[in-house]
Structure formats: C-alpha cells, structure tokens
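User: Predict Acetylxylan esterase's structure from this.
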Amino acid sequence: MMCQVKSRAQNAPTLVAGIPVNYDESKVGDYILPDPLLKSNGKKVSSRKDWMENRRPEILRIFEQEQFGEGPGKPMEMSFNVFDKGTPAFRGKAIRKQVRIYFTKDTSSNHKMDLVIYVPTNATKPSPLLLALSFSPNSQAIDDPGICPGTVWKDGEKVPATRSAIGKVDVERYISNGIGYASVYYGDIEPDAKDGIRYGIRSVYLKSGATQVGQNEWGAISAWSWGLSRAMDYLETDKSINSNMVAIQGASRLGKTVLWTGSRDQRFAMVIASISGESGAALSRRDFGETVAHMTDTSRYFYQFAPRYHQYSHKVNQMPMDSHMLIALMAPRPLLLQTGSTDFWSDPKGEYLAAQAAQPVYDLFGLEGVGARPFQPPQDDTMLSTLGYYMHEGGHTVLPEDHEVFIRFIMKHFRLD
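Assistant:
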C-alpha cells in the first residue's frame, strides 16, 4: 500500500505554472494556525451564543474580504418559470420538475439558470433534498431524456448543449432512500474562464465602465455560490421540498464553492464538499500539493477569487484565516469532506488535519468530529460524524460508490432512518 502511494506521488507534477510542488511530508515545514475561537479583541469565545453572534461573523467577514469576495443579495427582479410542473420519471419512481430562474428582469438575456428537481413519487410529506452543483448541463449530468438540453457558453453567448452518455449521477439511489435530488449547471451562472466576468452574472453588477471587480469584490466562486442561493430561493417556495433539509454537494472548485456557500448561507442544512483541496478544505499553510500561489497565478485560477487574495500567494503565513476556519463556519450543521487517497495535488491529509483543527468549534456545540486519531487509510467509513471525513481509494473524482456514503451521511444527520 505505502509503496503504491509513493510511486504515484513520484509521478505527480513537480512544477506547475513555474511554481514548485511539494509531495514530501518531511518538507511540509512548520506552521501555526490561527485560533478559530480567538476573537479580534483577544478574548476567547465563551459560549455557543458568543460564537454565533460575535466570532462567526468576524471569520465570515475575513473570508469575504480576503479570499472569496462579497456578492450581492437576492435580486429584486428575479423570477421563476416552472416550465415542467411535475412529470413521472425513472419508471414512475420519481416526479421531475424543471425551473428556469431568471436573475434579471430581462428574461431574454443570458442571465438565467435551469434547476431540475426530482422527488420520490410515494413521498407523503415534503422531501429532504441533495442539490448538486454540476460541471455539466443537467441533460448531461442525469440520464433522463425529458430534461431540457440546456446551454453552454461559446464566444460570450449561450448555445444549446449536446447530450452526453458519460458522467451520469444515479438519481434513483437517492429516490429509493426517500431523498430528493436536484442539479444546477455552474456555467448557467458564470462562465469558468478568465474573461467570464464579461458574460456571467458578475457583469450585471460591475460599476459603470469597469472591466474587473475591486480588490475585495467577488470572484467566480462567489458568483457560483450566489447562484446556489438563488436556487434555494426557489426551493423555499416549493411545497414538495423540505427547505429545512437541503444539502449541497460539489467537487473540486465546486467543492470549494459549496463549502463557501454553506458558510455564508445558513439556509443550507448540510454541505458535502468533495475533493475541494487548496483554498477549500485543505490547509493552505501546509506546503503540500497545490498552493495559494498555484491557485492565484494569472495563467490559472486567479479569476475565481477576490483580487485581494493574490497578495497571499507567497505569504500564506500572513493570512488571518486558513481552511479550518472556513470549515468551522459550518458549525453546528453537518459537513462531510470527501477526498481521494491518491489525490496528492488536493492534499487529502491537509483536509483531514483541517477538520481536526476545526473540531474545537464543533466541540463547543457538543458535536462529534473526526477525533484525534492519526490520518486514517482510505475507505474508513467510521468518521461520518457531524464534522465528517471520507477518503476513497483513488484520485481527484467522485466515484459512483461515494454516493452511497453521501446517502448514509444524509440519512444519519437528517435522521431519516
């Protein structure tokens, strides 16, 4: 097992964007993490109320200003068009709805998002729901020919998407366990590109004449997160959904997105952040795999963050925050960090250590975390606690069998057994 891991690490890239990458534990170096329970006035958090009313808002503001940027609130002119009001799907096991969410008054513009929702046909009360933020249009993410094909970005315009036979989520797994499933495509909100601000939702909010956001204004991750909140705006109106039991899930940069979304929008009752890595759940001060410098390099993903975040590219020890504090913002709500054993670039151990460092906040609420155990081998499914961690055997992906773990986590913490 150890020989296999070492061999795979040796085959990983050691130079990305001209910046060295470390995969050697002996070279990680020493670091000191900020205390999530130490308030800006130098006093320690004394109670759950003190955390919720004082320290939590401080940390949230730090992430808004220094990393993700602060997006706008709910737009006054937003509207919903339920163009599929309830159609049997999956051989009658589920009822499908499709909703077009218009972000602006101009319904002919590109600023709209399609939401597909499935609930169990035999549900006798509003259903709990997993809302997935997908890299693919809904028609490509789910094997259901009744889904509207959707659109993708091309040269600054949205064009019809082609259907695909790969990467499908087995929605029936969720339905058979009494859990609804919904999906939105992140490209409907903002293009995942360096010039995406010219075409996505952020373009609507740019100051007159501006071509880029200000230093602590929102990056693409905050834009995608904003879109998830608009999906929740609709879900709160749908009587077939229990809006108090909505979990969100995303992978990689979308894992970062759902982690940030759950932190800033407490309407989401649970987060499943998959392989979120650097600038997500993995500790930035731990020099292993991808780093802030890799993330913010102008040839890579600088557009995903507030411009102010770039000042920490080579000064991570000067950051007033780290990922354990982002994780702590979820308390007392359930959070599952899902990683892969060979995903060295995303540093699965760094995510585990971050969960341990966030544990004091969950302890404040009397809630279980991963504990003090050393880093565990893959496929240990005993850490599905309120602050949970699961690492599959494999790399940077969500495997079909991971969904079984997601379902167990949802059923356990939504008390659906």
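Residues 126 and 241 are 5 Å apart (CA to CA).
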